[in-house]
């Protein structure tokens, strides 16, 4: 099993440790099982339900967690259905809920999954893939979507300044018989569309935001998160905590606003009031953590 550094692990363990009666945890994003195994290790009385919509992630997580059997259950579902836990026998509320959003290293490093702008692979990006695959791949979306829809996706989900120019370039290429089936082809086209000085000014890979936007659209990530937050509020026990680690401002904004709404409704409080970011040491050791923001909501007792 590969070495794996779960993001803001110390902070997550501390937040779980503050919950008075910590019996049941839900890891909504098992991934490689890094946070989940650390939680099970640190709190020997804990039972953990873990969701992941990606079969490979579930397999990897189950292997990492095997030594804690039977203190966990892996659930093959989208976390938007988190409230369905209430229908499970013996479930009496979650004392700690964790979301570590986005893609896992496993998904990013496997070119075949199509998430990476650095390695050439099929333009897929569906978190459910192989025999589980449903819905449109990124390639299908790029073939079908109108100029307006593409612009909106790139602007809203990628916060890409050149959303319109890139969408226009893609549609024009399509009209001239061009096809985008590989990640490398999309990267090459974005590079062709954007003038060199613009690319130099962008700081970072010119296709990074386009890949992020397509991933969010293909996996309906914003709606899934919105439903999941509502579901989490329903199943959180009194005195329990929900912790969300997000990696881009869209997600973080949604989490911040939802937590504030819960607070205004008298359901509990944000603790701490502001987002927590990784230490300089962590960022130096794990580059992926650089954009992470952690927000924690504690439900009233
Ligand atoms: C950043 S990784 C989690 C890493 C994990 N915390 C660890 O320490 O190994 C995010 C995981 O969430 C999963 N995921 C993303 N959106 C999801 C959703 N809507 N429902 C279920 N799983 C989801 C992805 O498949 C991925 O495996």
Rg, rounded, reads 20 Å
Ligands and ions found: S-adenosylmethionine
Taken as a percent bin, the fraction of beta residues is: 5-15%
**What low-confidence regions span 5 or more consecutive residues with pLDDT below 50?**
none
CATH class membership of the largest domain: Alpha Beta
The CATH H-level homologous superfamily of the largest domain: Vaccinia Virus protein VP39
Form type: globular
| Helix percent band | 40-55%
Supply the number of structural domains. Answer: 2
InterPro entries: RsmH, SAM-dep_MeTrfase_MraW_recog, SAM-dependent_MTases_sf
Main location: cytoplasm
Catalytic activity: cytidine(1402) in 16S rRNA + S-adenosyl-L-methionine = N(4)-methylcytidine(1402) in 16S rRNA + S-adenosyl-L-homocysteine + H(+)
Keywords: Cytoplasm, Methyltransferase, rRNA processing, S-adenosyl-L-methionine, Transferase
Description of the molecule:
This protein has helices at 9-17, 34-42, 55-65, 105-109, 138-144, 147-158, 163-175, 183-193, 196-202, 208-218, 221-235, 249-264, 280-285; strands at residues 24-27, 47-51, 72-75, 94-100, 236-246, 268-270, 293-299. The protein has 301 residues and is an alpha/beta fold. The chain has 2 domains: 9-106 and 221-299, Rossmann fold (3-Layer(aba) Sandwich); 134-218, Putative methyltransferase TM0872, insert domain (DNA polymerase, domain 1, Orthogonal Bundle), CATH 1.10.150. Strand 1, helix 2 (34-42) and strand 2 form a beta-alpha-beta unit. The protein starts with 8 loop residues before the first helix and ends with a strand. Bound molecules: S-adenosylmethionine. Residues 4, 6, 29, 31-35, 51-54, 57, 78-80, 100, 102-104, 127, 224 line the site of S-adenosylmethionine (SAM).
